[in-house]
Amino acid sequence: MKNFLEISKEVKQAKEQGKPIVALESTIISHGMPYPQNVQTAREVEQIIRDNGAVPATIALIDGKIKIGLTDDELEQFGNSQGVAKVSRRDLPYILATKQKGATTVAATMICAELAEIQIFVTGGIGGVHRGAETTMDISADLEELAQTNVAVVCAGAKSILDLGLTMEYLETKGVPVIGYETDVLPAFYTRRSDYPVNFRADEVETIANTLKAKWDLNLQGGAVIANPIPEEHAMPEEVINTAIASALKEADDKGIAGKDTTPFLLGKIKEITAGKSLDSNIDLVKNNAVLGAKLAVELQNLNK
């Protein structure tokens, strides 16, 4: 297991010095936004984590290794590469064996973070139960990973291209706590609110850290969703984003797009419909999550001393 891991100098030093570490995914770089905006955003998010007292560990697959932390050159090279594989749990062994470049999704990043003993992971939004899943069975592997992998995921909720009600039901069945940071309801990625209450509200980072410590001290397997709403000034108007989502969903259906191609298609279409405003919101919410994730990692590290 350990011979697949390649830990960067910065992350290795952080481990030796007992500093808090925050995992970051690489799908957002390779599949989430265009070059060079993707690399610039990745660097800014990493710096936000450093500025808030933690060390960033962007995770990606390169040359048969799971890279835990990327150098500046690796980040540049990765962000500028074509044909990078999108890697979830099922894809990890093959992409490593064939030494392809792989961008880790939420599920794969959680697996790799746990292998590297990193407990906090910052992303944009989690995957979930897709609309119409009662017939298609299209459910993101992210949810199953949250049920079994001991990593907390700081996110702006789930994208409203999904069925948020069924997503919450699935998480409840799997015993995954959804903790709202300063919110009573699940944020819907581009917007601050949905119709679905979170399980617990926490107004203090310390409360979240204590909850995670208690969960894992009790050997209750699985992660947690830390739902952090996009700041008001960066949120999109609900009617604008809902109209864009409805249009994108119809086009995906008309074109027969399904499976793991669905989300990238929908996000690209929504970006097109909103004239790029959805991408701006995406970047802003990830940066906001990085602040909370770093503070949470610091708090948890202090509890674990």
Overview of the molecule:
With 305 residues, this protein is an alpha/beta fold. The protein has one domain: Indigoidine synthase fold (3-Layer(aba) Sandwich). 47% of the residues lie in helices and 14% in strands.
Low-confidence stretches: none
Distance, first to last CA? 26 Å
Shape descriptor: globular
What is the strand content?
Answer: 5-15%
What's the short version?
With 305 residues, this protein is an alpha/beta fold.
Sequence-ordered SSE layout with sheet pairings:
Elements: E1 5-7, H1 9-16, E2 21-24, H2 27-30, H3 37-51, E3 55-62, E4 65-68, H4 72-79, E5 85-87, H5 92-97, E6 102-104, H6 106-115, E7 120-122, H7 133-136, H8 141-148, E8 152-155, H9 164-173, E9 178-181, E10 200-202, H10 205-217, E11 224-227, H11 238-255, H12 262-273, H13 277-304
Helix pairs in contact: 3-4, 3-13, 6-8, 10-13, 11-12
Tag the structure with descriptive keywords.
11-stranded mixed sheet, alpha/beta, 14% strand, Indigoidine synthase fold, globular, 305 residues
